Amino acid sequence: MMNFHSSRAPVLNYPLQGDSILLMLHTTHPEIVNRLRRAEGHLRSIVEMIEKGRTCLDIAQQLHAVEKAVANAKRTLIHDHIDNCLEQTVGPMSRGARGPLEEFKEITKYL
């Protein structure tokens, strides 16, 4: 189901049909939501910059900052998933056995 707000993009209500009913809220999710909300506000201000005719350099710099913020939110989400969901599947691991898991987390920065 979608809700439409005035000039905003549609807001999806979760879970969507076919989604797993399991609640997948982790300790980092509120932090990720806050980061994405800040990025959303920042993106709106960039649109205003374009509408006001600001320089392309200024706009590009701000777009780069938003991209970094979204990428950091994505990385946090992926690392949280690895730490919680994946580890639940394979079970508790000793510090020595975590090597491949930590390497996997490190390689996700190239996504």
Write up what this structure looks like.
With 111 residues, the protein is mainly alpha-helical. It has one domain: Methane Monooxygenase Hydroxylase, Chain G, domain 1. 60% of the residues lie in helices and 4% in strands. The chain has 3 helices and 2 strands. The chain has helices spanning 29-51, 56-90, 99-107; strands at residues 2-3, 11-12. A two-stranded antiparallel ribbon has the order 1-2. Strand 1 and strand 2 form a beta hairpin. The longest helix is centred in the middle third of the chain and has 35 residues, at 56-90. It starts with a strand and ends with a helix.
Concise overview:
By secondary structure, the protein is mainly α. The chain contains three helices and two strands, in the order ββααα.
CATH architecture: Up-down Bundle
Secondary structure: number of strands: 2
Q: Let me know the average pLDDT.
A: 80
Strand order of the largest sheet: 1-2
Helix and strand sequence: EEHHH
Total of DSSP H or I helical runs spanning 4+ residues? 3
Which helices and strands, and how do they pair?
Blueprint: E1 2-3, E2 11-12, H1 29-51, H2 56-90, H3 99-107
Antiparallel strand pairs: 1-2
Helix pairs in contact: 1-2
